[in-house]
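> call design_seq(struct)
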């Protein structure tokens, strides 16, 4: 299979947006520990799934075909 161009403007935008939202939510919740953990786990999940090494890899049966 072919892997597309990795660092296009749209890919950079879709990577930076969750990071900015994470920083904003951490600030507005005053770094509450419960919110911080939930936001950190969700941010890591989003960023890990955007890695080029996971392109086309089925996660929990999604992208099987």
């Amino acid at each position: 299979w072919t892997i597309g161009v990795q660092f296009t403007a749209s890919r950079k935008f879709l990577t930076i947006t969750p990071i900015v939202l994470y920083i904003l939510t951490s600030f507005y919740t005053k770094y509450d520990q419960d919110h911080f953990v939930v936001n950190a786990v969700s941010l890591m999940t989003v960023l890990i799934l955007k890695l080029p090494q996971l392109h086309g890899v089925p996660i929990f049966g999604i992208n099987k075909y």
